[in-house]
Amino acid sequence: MGDRKLRILLSNDDGINAPGLAALHHEICKIADVTVVAPDSEKSAVGHAITLSDPLRVWNFQKDGRFFGYAVNGTPADCVKIACWALLKEKPDLIISGINLGSNSGINAIYSGTVSAATEGTILRVPSFAISLTTYVDPDFSYAAQFARRLALQVRERGLPEGTLLNVNVPPVPATKIAGVRVTRQGKSTYLEHFDKRTDPANRIYYWLAGKKVEVEEDLNVDDYAIKQDMVSITPLRFDLTDYEFLAELSSWDMLSPSS
Amino acid sequence: MGDRKLRILLSNDDGINAPGLAALHHEICKIADVTVVAPDSEKSAVGHAITLSDPLRVWNFQKDGRFFGYAVNGTPADCVKIACWALLKEKPDLIISGINLGSNSGINAIYSGTVSAATEGTILRVPSFAISLTTYVDPDFSYAAQFARRLALQVRERGLPEGTLLNVNVPPVPATKIAGVRVTRQGKSTYLEHFDKRTDPANRIYYWLAGKKVEVEEDLNVDDYAIKQDMVSITPLRFDLTDYEFLAELSSWDMLSPSS
């Protein structure tokens, strides 16, 4: 493609007005023609949802008096789909989702709308990564945004395997305190959850999910633990969910004869 | 556990009043104490969404004048979470999600609310499977329900590896026409998608996702193709999304020094 400028699509799950997306936009504009297509409101923990039963609407979204991007009344995966199939003239060279406010490590990768946008990009065969800043308190997105810019150039140069995306988590420390960059696997930490059972003003019962992460594996090869050690964690994820290891054993089960 | 009766939790994504869930309930009641916890309305293509920002409410749902189960204003994953953490006295022995109206094969496993309920069960360390009937037209759930009953007993006897669930797709043919049962991998068929661009009565533009599956791999080891050949497809899925193959190569990227 010679010297043609990179074309990068940005999305997120915190909504088009989120500061993390603005910080990402600021850095990525230095290296690429950028298009933003993002949910019109916060869509965290939507998993890999798409909207089939309702129409999608698209608005031009202004920021600081200028056109910033397209706001969609849908999920992060919807945004990537509608960008690639309807809003952009051709598929982008790269898709970046983020910068999320809060971590998307361990089992959270499954629930994450941020990861879902990158997954959808990968399904559409566009190299994609998700990036999150692992704090909710006083977020400073500047190092994460710079990291995204450098990673974008690396992904552009080296490519990603078909079906594989990257899930990046950046610890909330200044650049000088970053202890390194680590390629990790998805952690197996689970949540000790409970539902608060409450009563509303009309005396009806409702439930609210609460929980805290337990069992952090103490292994620098695990996303959660690397982040805890102030390292940037990069986990390669794939959307082929097949458990190839168990596949052969399963074939030996009795019931695999239809008359059993 | 000796002769204690099996305790099985049923959920789905088509909603608590769906005929596929009723058919499953009818068969599973023959072998287990059954609890139904399902969305109060249809939640297809919700992916692995959970509800964090809103309260969940639970209703007793009646069917044919009797208590049938708990209806929840949430997603399939919410239903499994609230069942295990709040509604049931102890975790069930097994979770079955379905019977879904329509296939959940290939890339659809990623979007599927049906699969998501089984994934959530697996995260909570309860052996789980999802089951779908691969048609939208004149569904007859009876064979699929019987198959679910037999599979439940096999899973109970043999267990599943930690982190692994089963995704079952049953072709819409009479029992006598079932060509066999096949352990498969998740197919890589993609969708040729487009967005219909339409104008509403108030002259505003909206978009509607449409698409058809392309590139079915002609391989009996692939879910989509096995189903096409009238075989029951069982795909073992895992929720660890890590791409272990690519992990080592990724570690060699230049940028894995924080100062690069």
Quick gist of this model?
Two copies of one chain form a homodimer. Chain A has 260 residues and is of the alpha/beta class.
Any overview of this molecule?
Two copies of one chain form a homodimer. By secondary structure, the first copy, chain A, is an alpha/beta fold. Chain A has a single domain (6-187, 218-256), classed as Survival protein SurE-like phosphatase/nucleotidase (Stationary-phase Survival Protein Sure Homolog, Chain: A, 3-Layer(aba) Sandwich), CATH 3.40.1210. The first copy, chain A, contains seven helices and eleven strands. In chain A, the strands form two sheets. A nine-stranded mixed beta sheet of chain A has the order 3-4-2-1-5-6-7-11-8. In chain A, helix 1 links the parallel strand 1 and strand 2. In chain A, helix 1 (19-28) packs across helix 5 (142-158) and helix 2 (76-87) packs parallel to helix 4. The longest helix of chain A has 17 residues, at 142-158. Chain A is globular and about 55 Å long.
